[in-house]
Amino acid sequence: MDLTGHTKPFAVLGHPIGHTLSPVMHNASMQELGFDGIYLALDVHPDRLMEVLPAMAQMGFAGVNLTVPHKEIAFHGLEKLDESAQLLGAANTVEFTEEGLVGHNTDGYGFLKALEVAFGSTVEDDAVFILGCGGAGRATALMAATKGARSVVLSDIDSDRVRRLKDEILGLAPHVEVVSALCDCERAELCRACDLVVQASPVGMKPEDPSLLPAEAFREGQRAFDLIYMYPETAFLTTARGAGAKIANGLGMLLHQGARAFEIWTGVEPSVSTMQKALENAVYGSNK
Questions:
Q1: Cα Rg of the chain, angstroms
Q2: Does 166 participate in catalysis according to the annotation?
Q3: Which of 26, 140, 199, 207 could form an S-S bond across to 226 if both were Cys, CB 3.0 to 4.6 Å?
Q4: Which residues neighbour 149 within 8 Å (Cβ) at sequence distance 6 or greater?
Q5: Which of 59, 52, 24 is nearest to 38 (CA)?
Q6: 91 vs 133: CA distance, rounded Å
Q7: What are the tens digits of pLDDT across the range 5-44?
Q8: Is the per-residue pLDDT at 287 higher than 70?
Q9: Owning domain of residue 65
Q10: Are 118 and 91 part of one and the same domain?
Q11: Burial of residue 152, with CB atoms counted within 10 A of its CB: 0-12 exposed, 13-18 middle, 19 or more buried
């Protein structure tokens, strides 16, 4: 990679940021395309985010991604928001335009595209179980409800969080049945009845983390999707696979949300196959 005075800088901002694989996939794609750019990972304290973003625009950055805990901060701090960010209440992509900064959300797109590639279908007419209703779970639940799911089951240790999300879903998609699963006694049964199970909690980010759902929560014909992407298979996915469910981790969601972000910034279609190969090498090793 040859860096010049014309090289366009991009970055992902987070706090912490050491776990991110975004530079791996974006730099590989830009190199494959011969695109004169570089993608960096920068640790920015959340208290400084809304100072840093305008400064980056002035410094000539061509686009920025945001990860935890910046998505909601940007949503509330940016004056201009794309429809995608307005729907999900979070911004993970910032576009620098002549009219100012514009917040987008490509997570929803990435979620649906990853499901389509992994399973051959998305959420249409599905009963969807969401395990973990924080930022990522909230986004996937709202996306499922507004893109054709017939019902959504919400499970989280925080009952107030579940209640707020239930109200949000019913406000956007009143035709969708929304059920709360708050205790262990009902969680497995409700999960087993669903077509798609989405693991959106942070449990699984450590290799030793157990599955939050037992084997009896899964069945043949089900699809189990874990938003965690740092490992080929979490305990959640292992448990689901053992019960006969089809499984996929969050690498596809990372891939496709990133590809969409690059298109927003540049108007150029990235090399998705190169991005995918770079991610798989990082997670699975070069023997994948």
A1: 19
A2: no
A3: 199
A4: 123, 124, 125, 126, 127, 128, 176
A5: 24
A6: 17
A7: 899 999 999 999 988 999 999 999 999 999 999 999 999 9
A8: no
A9: 8-105+252-284
A10: no
A11: buried
In a shared domain, residues 64 and 144: no
Taking Cα atoms as reference points, which of 215, 192, 195, 211 lies closest to residue 203? 211
Same domain flag for 13 and 83: yes
Structure tokens at 173: 């998609």
**pTM (2 d.p.):** 0.93
N-term to C-term CA, the chain: 25
Strand order in the sheet with 246-248: 177-180, 151-155, 127-131, 196-199, 223-226, 246-248
3-state secondary structure 3-48: CCCCCEEEEEEECCCCCCCHHHHHHHHHHHHCCCEEEEEEECCHHH
Only one residue has tokens 């030793």, namely 208
pLDDT in tens, 71-123: 999 999 999 999 999 999 999 999 999 999 999 999 999 999 999 999 999 99
Question: Cα 262 from chain centroid?
Answer: 15
- Yes or no: say if 218 and 189 are a contact pair by the CB < 8 Å rule: no
Residues 122 and 237 reside in one and the same domain: yes
User: Would you say 12 and 20 are in contact if contact means Cβ atoms under 8 Å apart?
Assistant: yes
Distance from C-alpha of 284 to C-alpha of 278, rounded to nearest angstrom? 10
Indicate which residue of 71, 147, 277, 288 is catalytic: 71
